[in-house]
Structure formats: structure tokens, C-alpha cells
Amino acid sequence: MSERTGEHRHAITLTVNGVLREAAVPARRLLSDCLRHDLGLTGTHVGCEHGVCGACTVLLDGEPVRSCLTFAVTVDGHEITTVEGLAERGELSPVQRAFSECHGLQCGFCTPGFLCTVTAFLRDNRTPTDEEVLEAVSGNLCRCTGYQNIIKAVHRAAEIQAEESG
């Protein structure tokens, strides 16, 4: 029970970006709020708070989910990857590098959600068509870029991944 609110807290344990983390959260705490406020991982952005914009997208056991629609208690024991966890050994991931190289971001608010979405998409589809890319990113809204460079970045990320996998 929290002294401040009188609300019961639930102990949860999750692996976030490869690190075992624990938190005590109210039953109604959203995963986005848990990541940002309880665990200090502010890369996950909250836009619409209705699951429409995709800015809050993270990977839950490798699959993209809207963290603003997911209760933190439901991910107890699961693995979460946020935008902070996409880089490996201090190196940007192919998707992150491609977005930078192709100018697939402007203000950056929607970028974490796009990066997580595209990471999962390219894991499952190594050589996407333009139509498949459009479908994959259709759940992520960007108000700045006009999407053309985002589409280019997805294709470039696929190229980088192909080059690196030999």
C-alpha cells in the first residue's frame, strides 16, 4: 500500500533492454508510465494516450505493443525492449543508423515508436516492398516528415542488415 495514495502496489519483475528490473506499481499503472517514471527510461514517448499515434511503441517479447494501452502488471516476467535497448554494445542498430542516414526523423517525438516498429518488421521481412513498408508503419503517425524519408530509411535498414549478415 502506498502511503501517499493508499493504493495497493504490485511487485513486478521484467527484463528491460536485457537488464532484470523490479518495480512496485499500482494495478492501473501503464507500461509507458512504468518505463518513464518508475524505471527512468524516458525514450518511450507518450503522444495521444489512446494507442493511435504509435509514439509509445515498445517491443514486448519481440513484438511491437502500445505501452500506453498496456498495464505494467500484465508484463510481469516478460522482456521489454525500448528505444534505449536497440543499440548494441554502444553502436546504433541498423534501423537507427538508417533513420539518421536517410533523415527519417525531424522533431524526433515519433521516432522511438517508429524505430521499435521497424526493428520488429525487418526481423520478419528482410526485403520488404514499398507497400509492405507503408503497411508496417501505418500505425505510427509523424507530423513532420511526410513519410518519404521514413520509407527510404526502412529500405536502407534492410540493406544494412543484409550487408552485415553477409
From TrEMBL:
Record flagged with keyword Iron: yes
Coiled-coil segments on the chain, per record: none
A single MF term (Gene Ontology): oxidoreductase activity
Key words, A-Z: 2Fe-2S, Iron, Iron-sulfur, Metal-binding, Oxidoreductase
Ranges where the 2Fe-2S ferredoxin-type domain occurs: 10-86
InterPro entries for this protein: 2Fe-2S-bd (IPR002888), 2Fe-2S-bd_dom_sf (IPR036884), 2Fe-2S_ferredoxin-like_sf (IPR036010), 2Fe-2S_ferredoxin-type (IPR001041), 2Fe2S_fd_BS (IPR006058), Beta-grasp_dom_sf (IPR012675), Diverse_Oxidoreductases (IPR051452)
Pathway: Alkaloid degradation; nicotine degradation
Name by which UniProt lists this protein: (2Fe-2S)-binding protein
Species whose genome carries this gene: Planotetraspora silvatica
